[in-house]
Amino acid sequence: MKIAIVGAGAMGSRYGYMLHKAGNKVTLIDAWKQHVDIINKEGLTVEENGALSKVKIPAMLPEDAKEVPDLIILFTKSMGLEPMLKSIKNILGKNTRVLCLLNGLGHNETIAKYVDRKNILMGVTLWTAGLAGPGHVVLTGDGSLEVQNNDPSMKVEAKEICSILSQAGLNAHYSEDVLFSIWRKACVNGTLNSSCTILDCNIKEFGELKEAPQLIRNIIKEFAEVAAKYGVKLNVEEVAEGIEKIYDPSQAGAHYPSMHQDLIQNHRLTEIDYINGYVSRKGKEFNINTPYNDLITDIVHAKEQLIIK
Ligand code: NAD
Fold first, then answer.
1. Residues 137, 46 contacting (CB under 8 angstroms)
2. Marked catalytic residue, from 185, 204, 229, 245
3. pTM, 2 dp
4. In angstroms, rounded to a whole number, what is the distance separating the alpha carbons of residues 20 and 5?
5. Ligand 1 atom showing the smallest separation from residue 102 Cα
6. Which domains does the chain have, with CATH numbers?
7. pLDDT digits over 152-199, tens only?
8. How far apart are CA 167 and CA 180, in angstroms?
9. Which terminal CB of the chain, N or C, has fewer other CB atoms within 10 Å?
10. For 81-122, what is each residue's pLDDT tens digit?
């Protein structure tokens, strides 16, 4: 299958590498020129459980992409999604399926401005990846993903895409309710990512705070009220208990969430507007009070101004 990975940072490089290894014709598309140039010159450096290899996968800037693929997998950061969609208009063919695997909320609405609804697939992934530098992806652990078609008529095609992804070892499952899974994951990000970023701590340290149990429930309650407007039923206690299991160091306790890595460690902007900020914005639209998410969004934006000069 001809697959373009659009946004080929850490996660895009992971998916691109695994799909390429399984025999698909993969192209990595990214706006970071240094990254693209190194991949083309030296190959993508893949560090997998400590072992290094160089893999030849063609990479290009969005404006240089001309060939229409069968499948596009979107893996930009949330704030990079719309500019990226604008710059790849040339390769959005009539039958090009577009699978969105970004974290965060509201991407469906953004993609629908550029892509025929019948071609949109939404997903959520539990794989992880990191970048050690341009052209160098670091892979550890296992993962999975869920995928669902937007348009009810595209179920067979969505299942076929799951099977291509699974043949590459990505462990893809067809979901009957991916929107629920997307909101559920957004609750994890909206509690742990933003709190650990504001407090500058890891997940275990956050979980040990006496404020943590009530704080996460207050945040999730607002997510649940907004999610209900989209027909998504989140059980606050069930979501909170799921998050509390992650505090264990044998789970993700020692981990600093990606928002912490972005802002505190790498001085990059965060995806806050698509997580807590989305709940805050939509709360205003639906006349739902979201004081916790309003404050968290403001504090993370304030911290971005202090850190990113
Ligand atoms: P990433 O930051 O590695 O890549 C995103 C974009 O930023 C790419 O276009 C990349 O080239 C560019 N970029 C990265 N480092 C850069 C630098 N130093 N200078 C200039 N440009 C740079 O993002 P990611 O971790 O692959 O995440 C993509 C999406 O997947 C996000 O929505 C994220 O929340 C989600 N996600 C990430 C993980 C993970 O483990 N990384 C897991 C699940 C979901």
1. yes
2. 185
3. 0.97
4. 11
5. 32
6. 2-176 (3.40.50.720), 179-307 (1.10.1040.10)
7. 999 999 999 999 999 999 999 999 999 999 999 999 999 999 999 999
8. 25
9. C
10. 999 999 999 999 999 999 999 999 999 999 999 999 999 999
